[in-house]
Design brief:
Layout lengths: L2 H18 L6 H12 L22 H22 L8 H14 L2 H17 L27 H19 L3 H7 L1
Length: 180
């Protein structure tokens, strides 16, 4: 799944959780869920590893060039050691982050783990799948034959974004309706 769609899925799931169970999530928690939803793709050179992909275009080249270099080399190292969609895509890592965050009472670490698992939820519906039972086995499991970059993936991404925007704005709808 492409990064923008991972973010849409994470926002839709977080907005659903927030509306149902915990309406007072902090801005930091929302941001960390987004970071977590992109984190497993650190093993994919050219996506999350390159800050110029997501920093605003007005950011000075003197800042983005060294960050891109560092991110690219970090990504290549992670990919060399673990492979793409290898150990970095084990759900046990996300569960471990959540468990550690709950034990330490650090909501940001729970949010990071939740975003991490939401990333894997997006990847498990692609044809490449994820090693769902890792580290017990490295066999990748796919629930749907969705191809990354396909029209269908884009449609799923758009639906996630529409749900996210609708749920995020839903608390304000009564106020908006009263002003007209």
């Amino acid at each position: 799944m492409r990064g923008i769609n991972h973010v849409g899925l994470a926002l839709a799931a977080t907005a659903t959780y927030s509306n149902l169970y915990h309406p007072a999530l902090s801005i930091m928690d929302w941001g960390v869920v987004i970071i977590g939803s992109l984190l497993p793709d650190i093993d994919n050179v050219g996506t999350v590893a390159r800050p110029s992909n997501f920093l605003p275009k007005f950011t000075p080249r003197a800042l983005t060039a060294p960050l891109d270099w560092l991110g690219t080399h970090l990504s290549k190292t992670v990919r060399f050691i673990f492979g793409h969609r290898g150990m970095i895509h084990y759900p046990a890592l996300g569960v471990g982050l959540i468990a550690l965050g709950m034990w330490l009472k650090w909501s940001w670490l729970v949010a990071l783990g939740a975003g991490y698992l939401l990333h894997l939820a997006g990847d498990i519906i692609t044809i490449e799948g994820v090693p769902l039972l890792g580290p017990l086995t490295t066999k990748k499991i796919s629930l749907l034959p969705l191809r990354v970059g396909s029209f269908t993936e884009g449609l799923v991404g758009w639906l996630c974004w529409l749900v996210a925007i609708g749920l995020i704005l839903s608390p304000f709808l009564p106020f908006i309706a009263k002003t007209y």
